Amino acid sequence: MLRSLFAAAVIITLAGGSAEAARCGGDFNGFIASMTAEAQAAGVSAAVTSAAFSGITPDGAVLAFDRRQRYTFNKTFEQYVSTRVGAGRINGGRALLQRHAALLSRIEQQYGVPRQILVAIWGLESDFGKGDMGKLPVIRTLATLAHDCRRTELFQGELLAALKIVQRGDLPLRDLIGAYAGEIGQTQFLPSSYIKYGVDFDGDGHVDLRHSVPDVLASTANLLHSNGFKMGQPYGEGSANFEAMREWNRAVIYRKTIGYFGDRLVGQ
C-alpha cells in the first residue's frame, strides 16, 4: 500500500489556517464536533461534514488491526518477491502494457516515469485493479485513527484530506471506501497524496482513483515525478530513482520488488 504508513512519523497538515487541532481521546462525539469545525474552517462545506459524520462511531476492528501492525518486513527480498511476483502476474502485466500502450506513452511523455514501473506498482497494490482495494468507509476509519492519540496529527490530516476529496467532487461518500489506514483506489493513495498528486487524466473533471485507469496511472506517475524520478535513469537500489520511490514506500524490500517486477514486465 502507498507508503504503508512507514511515513507515520511525518505529520501532514492540510488545513492551512484552520482552528487548533482537535484533541484526541475522550468523548468521540466531542472529537467529531471539533473536527467538523476544523474541516469547515479549511473550506469543507457543512453539507459535506454533516453527511460524512452522520451517525459515525469508532471502529474497534480498525484499532485492533492498527495495533497488530508492524511497519517492517520480516522476510528477505527473495522470500518476499516470490510471494508477490509470479508468472501469472507478470503475464497479466505484460498484457496490460499492450492494452494501454497509447495511454502509457502519453503518461511517459508528460511525467517521465517508465511504463513498467507504473504497471508494477499497479499490480502490487491491487492486482491491476482486480484485487482487494479495501472495504472500509474511509471517513470512519480515519476518524477512528485520528481519535486515537498515538498518531492523531497524522490521521487528522488524512481525515481532512478525505473530506476534501468529497468536497472537490472526486468521489462521492458511497465510493470513499478503502483499507485499514484509509488508503484509496487501485494504487492505494492515502487521502493527502490523493489531494496532492491526483491527476484528472481522462478529462472528466474528477480525480477518480478507484475507477479511472488513466487517472490511476497518471497520478502514480505524478507522485514519482514530483519526488524526482527521471526517465531513462536506473532505478535499482542506490540510484536516485530508487530514492525518489521512497515517497511511495519507505521499505527497501518493497522498492526493490517494484524494480524487479518492472524489469520482468519488459523482459529484463
UniProtKB/TrEMBL annotation:
Q: Which residues form the signal peptide?
A: 1-21
Q: Which residues form the Transglycosylase SLT domain?
A: 28-236
Per UniProt, the keywords (alphabetical) are: Signal
UniProt GO BP:
peptidoglycan catabolic process
On whether Zinc is a keyword of this UniProt record, the answer is no
Pfam families named among the record's database cross-references: SLT_2
Question: For this protein, what is any one GO molecular function term?
Answer: peptidoglycan lytic transglycosylase activity
Checking InterPro entries in the record gives:
Lysozyme-like_dom_sf, MltB-like, MltB_2, SLT_2
Gene3D superfamilies of this UniProt entry? Bacterial muramidase
Cite the PANTHER family for this sequence. Answer: LYTIC MUREIN TRANSGLYCOSYLASE, MEMBRANE-BOUND LYTIC MUREIN TRANSGLYCOSYLASE B
What the entry lists under NCBIfam families is as follows: MltB_2
Q: What is this protein called?
A: Lytic transglycosylase
Native organism is Bradyrhizobium guangdongense
